[in-house]
Amino acid sequence: QVRLMESGGGSVQAGGSLRLSCAGSGIIVSWNAMDWYRQRPGKQRDLVAYIMPDGRTWYTASVRGRFTISRDNAANTVYLQMNSTNAEDTAVYYCHVFDTTDYWGQGTQVTVSA
User: What is the pLDDT of residue 114?
Assistant: First the structure.
């Protein structure tokens, strides 16, 4: 059974940093494209970043240069380092993987205050 468990959310002042973690079980994260999505209040869920098995990464324009996606193969965990945060980053952040079907974590709330 595939499970994704996010952690690391919380409240931060604008300009601050947070690191989100996504621990996988029942799946090897380094063998799959792993994604971070976010859902802002009243908005749809949007793709923020992904990391491919070969290490290639992609970021949506609004976070490029501020966020970094990475993984620790030994820990079977994917991270999202969030730097220079702003109010627009306030959202519930979800870890996602597609492996014959979509798997989502439970989400972790990030709140950025001015």
Answer: 87
User: Distance between CA atoms of 53 and 76, rounded to whole angstroms?
Assistant: 12
Total length of the chain: 114
Q: Is 31 helix (H, G, I), strand (E, B) or coil?
A: helix
81 near 10, Cβ under 8 Å? no
Indicate if the pLDDT at residue 55 is higher than 90: yes
Within a 10 A sphere around the Cβ of 70, how many other Cβ atoms? 14
- Name the β-bridge partners of 106: none
CA-based end-to-end distance of the chain? 40
DSSP 43: S
pLDDT average, residue stretch 81-97: 98
